[in-house]
Amino acid sequence: MADDRSKAPRPKIVTEQTQGEAPQQATPHLQAASAPRDTSSDPVSHAPRDTSSDPVSHDAAQHGSFRQGVDAARSWVSRTFPGNENAFLGGVLGFLVAILIFAIGFWRTLFVIVLVTVGVCVGQQMDGDPKLWNAVRKLFSSRDR
Fold first, then answer.
1. Range of the domain at 92
2. How much is the pLDDT for 32?
3. 117 and 97, same structural domain?
4. How far apart are CA 117 and CA 123, in angstroms?
5. Could you tell me if residue 143 is inside a domain?
6. What is the Cα–Cα distance from 48 to 82, expressed in whole angstroms?
7. Residues 109 and 74 in one domain
8. Domains of the chain: total
9. For position 20, what pLDDT does the model report?
10. 145, 109: one domain
11. How big is the CA angle at 86 (ends 83 and 88), to the nearest 5 degrees?
12. Is 53 within the bounds of a domain?
């Protein structure tokens, strides 16, 4: 059985020749894809700076773009549903809960909601503003006091 590599098209070899001169020896003008270019002799490298390892600039860029996205979404909701922003948010939240119920079931969805609520309570407590915790405490406190 013949080798499939022998049927592959071969690259053309380009010869450098100027008018009136004898042809020079043919040299292939191909660069290996895996061989990196040596930039040690370049006075200034024109490669873009890699900021992925710089945590400060990377986080700031992500935080800025996330903040811009949130602000753009908030302004769109305000323009599209003036005076009904919370109703829209409630509808989106209900839609997400419905997707969770269909995807993972009622009890697992309820478990996720309880864990998220506990996480929010702990976070608010650590921030020093336990609004949700106070609301739960008020809900379960006795009315006799």
1. 58-104
2. 47
3. no
4. 10
5. yes
6. 44
7. no
8. 2
9. 60
10. yes
11. 90
12. no
Residues in the chain: 145
Check whether 9 has a pLDDT greater than 50.
yes
For residues 25 and 65, the model is more confident at 65
Three-state SS letters, the chain: CCCHHHHCCCCCCCCCCCCCCCCCCCCCCCCCCCCCCCCCCCCCCCCCCCCCCCHHHHHHHHHHHHHHHHHHHHHHHHHHCCCCHHHHHHHHHHHHHHHHHHHHCHHHHHHHHHHHHHHHHHHHHHHCCCHHHHHHHHHHCCCCC
Which single residue is written with the structure tokens 């013949």? 2
Residue 10 located in a structural domain: no
- Indicate if the alpha-carbon torsion angle 58, 60, 61, 62 is positive or negative: positive
What local confidence, expressed as pLDDT, does residue 97 receive?
A: 92
Residue 3 dihedral angles phi and psi, to the nearest 5°: -75, 130
